[in-house]
Structure formats: structure tokens, C-alpha cells
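Dear colleagues,

For the upcoming journal club I promised to circulate an example of a predicted protein-ligand complex. I picked one with fe (ii) ion because it came up in last month's discussion. The inputs are reproduced below in full, followed by the predicted structure.
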Amino acid sequence: MVDKARIMVVEDEAVISMEIQDRLARMGHSVCGTAASGDEAVSVATANHPDLILMDVQLRGDIDGVETAQRIRSRIEVPVIYLTAFADDRTVQRARETEPYGYLIKPFSEKELYAAIEMALYKHTMEEKLRESQRQFATTVRCIADCVIVTDTEMRITLMNPSAQSVTGWREEEALGLKLDAVLKIVDERTGKPFETPVAEVLEKRVALNMIGPVLLIRKNGERIPVEDSAAPMIDDVGRLTGAVMVFRDITERKRAEAAVKTAFDTLEERVRDQTAELRGSLDRLGRTVEGTIQALATMVEARDRYTAGHQVRVADLACEIAQQMGVAESRFGVIRIAGLIHDVGKVCVPIEILNKPAPLSPIEFEIVKQHPRAAYEVLEKIEFPWPIADIVLQHHERLDGSGYPSGLRGDQIHPEARILGVSDVVEAMSSHRPYRAALGTDRGLEAIVAGRGRLYDPQVVDACLRVFNQGGFHFRNIPSAPG
Ligand SMILES: [Fe+2]
Ligand SMILES: [Fe+2]
């Protein structure tokens, strides 16, 4: 049984009203108000907020029970059960329009009254729960940063969150009830031809789908913006399809960043190719040793700007000291030294104005800077070294927890030499002057690697580095330098 309820009785015949009140008391319910006329019922109900109203259809006064119920329900949310001795079609029809929770024909038994009340209260509780979950769903959708459009099974829009409204340029009240394709106009980026959203297929196959791009969204004002999207069917508890939800986002900024990176990368690749060819030529002509080539490569990089001068030499010095402290075989020192001397060779691909920017980098600029390990790799893999120099240089910004770049490698996936180089690079970078700040000092560099010990940096390398400074009395060579 539903918990004891507060019930209001609207009945113009006093004897019947009393009888109903007695029955309610026997059932354990309380009567929170009575009324004999419609006007009285409206004011009592509004003041008392009953859980349920038993409403006689025939009432004293100007308005009948159906009209009274309409007025009450326009003010408060309450279930109504009609009571009547007459059940003509017109009355039933009018009553139905007020969404009654029950309809009892007088005279009715106590059992019938009991059942009608239980059903009405149960139904009302369930509806309240459903409304609450719908409210929560709508609130969640409205707070999502991605654009969300919900449709019914006929692809008519039933909800548009604020992000979807601002990206499409349509207000929710304009779009509600319209077919999705009237609001969400998508075209193929390459051909300009209309592109169907995946919603029709989602509704038909009942599976989530992504739109295969690249595509453009035509905003209400005709402007075209790149988007990516996905759609999923909405299926209720009993497996019934109730509509589809489409999620999409404006990827203008991302596209811009990708284009900038690609342009920079293309230029850089070209520049690196030329410079590599030049270096190779000089190597042939002068018959230099591998170390000589490396030195030339390093000098060439550093010659581009004053801040990078010396950084690579100092990183190489420290990396070798750490390797020695760790007991790495002497035969590996050469690899570590060479990798250190050229680890930032890829920076020839980074525009000089970004390298020398006297302020923190924007996300796009940082994306460009982050290309330097791969740019270096492209160059170095073509040079025949007897060691995996290209891989070590490629990985010098990888971190143990996968938060590094360019590949997000973790733990043992990172070359041991690259882990040594990574630590040396951070300590040198923090120790030295950078375009946008003065040198922070070696202590700050060591604090940084201790803070990241085990999470970002190999603990053995960090410990060895601390010993190099604290026990070995290591000092960086005094060459103007800067990091990367
Ligand atoms: Fe670097
Ligand atoms: Fe560096």
C-alpha cells in the first residue's frame, strides 16, 4: 500500500462527503480539506496542497467538478479522481481532457474507492519520479560543453542545449518540432554536397555511429564551420526506441592548429632536408668524423638563435656524468654524448620568432615546438649511425607516466638513454635563461626532477643526477644557453 495520504474531498452532498471521509479514515488516510463548491475547492486545494483530490463532478455554484479540477491543476500539481452518478459521454470526454487519475461511478464500494486511490497515488508517484529524471537529464545535457540535439523517432527536434544553439545559430524555441535536417545542415568539406547526418541510420539500426568527415556545418547565417559528430539511439528501460541524441563540436580551432603545424612542419622538413644535404656534403668534403658531423649539426641549430647556444652541449655534459654515476658501460657514453649534442636539432623547424618569444607560448605555438623531436628523427634516421641515436632523440620528451610527447610512451617503452637525456634536459633548461624568464638556478631544476621522480622521470636517473651535483660537485659549463 502507498503511504498514508492527505486527501481532499470535494462533494456537495454533505452525507456522501461524510461517508467518504469515514471510509478514508478507515483506510488510514487523513482528510486535509473539504469543499462543496468549485470556488471553495480551488482556494482550499491551493492553500492545503493535498496529495489527492476526490472530486464530485456535480457541484454547487457556477462551475462543475471538471472545470474546478482544471483550475486547481493550473495552480498546483495534484492527482484527481472524479466521482459522479452520471457518466454521459460529454462529461467523460471533458473529464478525460483534465487527465484524471481515476473515475468512480456512484454508488461505489469501499473496495473500489481503495483501489482507485492506491492506483492514483502510485501512478502519480511514478510520474513524479519520471519527471524528476527527465529534469535531471535536461539539466545534464544543458551543462555539457559539446553541442547536443535530441530528436524523437521521427527525427523531430525535442531538445537543443546552449552549445548547440550557439554553434548552429538556431534558438531552441525556433528549432523545437522541426526536422533535424532543417536545422542541422551538413555538407562534405571537399565536394560541398549535402551530407546526411547519421541519425536516420542510428534510428533504423539502433546503433551509435560517427559521421565520417571531413564535414562542414552551415550555420543559420550561412557561415560554414568544420564539425565532427556522433549520434546514438535512445532506448528506454523496456527496450523501446524513443529517439536519438546527436553530439557534435566545432573543430575550427583544432583545424587551424593542425594547418599551422602542417605548414610549419612542411617548411621545416624542407629546411632540414637542405641542411642535412649540406652537412652530408661537408662531411664528404672534409672527411670529418661522425662526432664532427654531429658537432656541425649542433652548431648549425644553435647558430639560429642566441638562446639555444650551449644548451645541447650542457645537456650532453650532464647526461654523460649521470651515465657514469649510474655505472653505465663506458661504450655507451659516446651514444649519450652524441644524442645530447643534437637532441634539439629538430628546432631548426621551429620559426625563430616562436623560439625567441619573450612570453609564454600559445597552444598553437607549443604544438609547433612539440614537433621538434619528430623533425629531428626525420633527419637523423637517414644518417647511418652505429647506434639508435634517432630513437633516443625522438624520445627525449617522453615521460614515464605517458604524459610526454610525441608518442606518449610509458616506462620501459622509453629508451634508457632517452630517460637520462630527459632528466638532463629538464635540469639544464630550468637552470638557464629562457626568452621569457631569467635563469631559475640549478636548485630549481633539481627540485623539479625530485618532484617528478618515479612519475615522470626514471628514479635511478634522478638519484644519479642528484649525486652528480651533490657529491660530484658538477657545474654546468659557462656557455650562454637555452633549452627545449
Ligand atoms: Fe627538446
Ligand atoms: Fe633540449
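Two points we might discuss: The longest helix spans residues 252-286. Residues 343-344, 372, 396-397, 425, 484 surround fe (ii) ion (ligand 1) (CB under 6 Å).

See you all on Thursday,
B. R.
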